Amino acid sequence: MLPEPKFTALDDALYGYMLAHRSPDDEVVRELREETARLGGPAVMQVAPEQATFLRMLVAATGARRAVEVGTFTGLSSLSIARGLPVDGRLLCLDVSEEWTALARRAWAKAGVAERVELRIAPAAETLRALPEQPTFDFAFIDADKKGYPVYWEEILRRLRPGGLIVADNVLWDGDVVRPEAQDEDVVAIRRFNELVLADPRVESVMLAIADGLTIARKLL
Ligand SMILES: C[S@@+](CC[C@H](N)C(=O)[O-])C[C@H]1O[C@@H](n2cnc3c(N)ncnc32)[C@H](O)[C@@H]1O
Asked: Is the CB of 94 under 6 A from ligand 1?
């Protein structure tokens, strides 16, 4: 007989407890979260605090030196990735918004990691396609428009070194991925992306229930 499924559902109290029991955010992160909250509605796009901690630790633990992020917004995930890199590491950030990424630039400067980060403002598919073909990246974070995920996946995976990681956000889409009545274009795109990852023989992958769901995929040798 198979064992009972093993997971702990979160409520607000348990989530608060979990957030309080990780390494605390510093002043740069606290300020960035406050500034982003003042934007109102768009603030929902920011990665969750525990995702930010997790990204930094994942980058540091894997020894990644060259990273790419698709979807920078006000900069919390990029700040985390940049902080996980060594001093001579490099992070290429892709976004279409000068306005939102202006906050990111300030946070990178305050944290002393601005020299590690290059920001390109253009549709990410165009920027990625124009990059050299040879393996370039050790680590990638995908968190932009959901319809674009398959293109970002393909363009990054071919430039990822064997053993490198691609992390993709929002793969549970608030649980809508398993609700047949949910058919808006974002959830359809996320379902399609999840199937594409599953069927891709070039990677091994796991989906983690952190925030809105993270897929971590490792390129096989
Ligand atoms: C969910 S937010 C990213 C959140 C960010 N990772 C953080 O930690 O705050 C998505 C971002 O993708 C950007 N975006 C949307 N479509 C894009 C595209 N075609 N190319 C590049 N960036 C895009 C948006 O401008 C937005 O800043």
From this structure: yes
Q: What is the mean pLDDT of the segment spanning 117-131?
A: 98
Instruction: Quote the pLDDT of residue 102.
Output: 98
Could you give the CA distance from residue 95 to residue 127 in angstroms, rounded to a whole number? 10
Nearest CA to ligand 1 atom 7: 46
Q: Do 119 and 95 contact (CB within 8 A), yes or no? A: yes
For residue 78, which atom of ligand 1 is closest to its CA?
Answer: 8
Distance CA(155)–CA(135), nearest Å, equals 11
Burial of 199 (0-12, 13-18, 19+ CB in 10 A): exposed
Mean pLDDT of all residues belonging to the chain: 97
* Distance between CA atoms of residues 2 and 4, nearest Å: 7
164, 217 in Cβ contact below 8 A? no
pLDDT tens digits, 171-221: 999 999 999 999 999 999 999 999 999 999 999 999 999 999 999 999 997
* Ligand 1 centroid distance, CA of 94 (Å): 8
pTM: 0.97
Indicate which residue's Cα is closest to atom 1 of ligand 1.
45
